[in-house]
Design a protein that fits this description.
single chain, 2 domains, 3 helices, two-stranded antiparallel ribbon, mainly alpha
Length: 109
Amino acid sequence: MRNRLLSAYPDGRDDTLKALQVALSLGMDHPLTIETPLMWLDKAATWQLAHELGGEELVQLIREETNSCYLGERSKLFEWGRGCGLCPACGLRAAGWEAWQATRAATAS
């Protein structure tokens, strides 16, 4: 499923990464591939994939040790992880967490 809420920053977009891949390949003088397997998943699907790959331990590691906050805020820990809770990246992550939790609750019933 393609994420309809794309990054507000152009450095995380497919066109930018394709251009970087071309530039790096030219600079290295051999083909180089940048893999972006999460780019086409929404945040709920990303949380689900983390759970499938590593269970609750991996989900908790991601919550506690990573962030995607545009402001780099790490001191606040929300259900969905660290961040400011206000920027677009935090909003996407929070919405994805909530959607994943709702899906889990529905399938557990």
